[in-house]
Amino acid sequence: MSHYLWIPFVILYYIIYSCFSRINNNCSELIIWYQQKWFWITFIFGAICPFWVIITRTSKNLLFDGILYDNIMFLTYTLTIICLGGADKFVTHQWFGLGLVVLGSILMRIGFN
Questions:
Q1: How far apart are CA 13 and CA 59, in angstroms?
Q2: Cβ of 55: how many Cβ atoms within 10 Å?
Q3: In the chain, what's the furthest Cα-to-Cα distance?
Q4: How many Cβ atoms are within 10 Å of 58's Cβ, its own excluded?
Q5: pLDDT tens-digit profile of 21-65?
Q6: Domain region containing 59
Q7: First CA to last CA distance, the chain
Q8: Half-sphere exposure of residue 61, counting CA atoms within 13 Å on the CB side?
Q9: Number of H-type helices and E-type strands within the chain
């Protein structure tokens, strides 16, 4: 079970990354994209730690760990953006699509049993 110690680090990483993304998207500076401070902070932070490369080195079940990593990444990022108010302007079809993605990941997990 010690090879799943990466889970809290991935959750923390994607919480911080989604906060940076939210700030970057709300940046009211109307300047060229390559001059924006938050663009570069988000870009560098997004590329700073390739967790998947680390996980594959210690994985005992690569298929399960891949789906687990993707679900943790998706849910953490999405829930953080929702909590930060980034989904305030979602319309019905966007919430429906989000629900379909969650349902699809649940159905994939059921297929492993």
A1: 19
A2: 19
A3: 52
A4: 12
A5: 888 888 766 666 666 788 888 889 988 878 888 888 888 888 888
A6: 2-111
A7: 19
A8: 8
A9: 5, 0
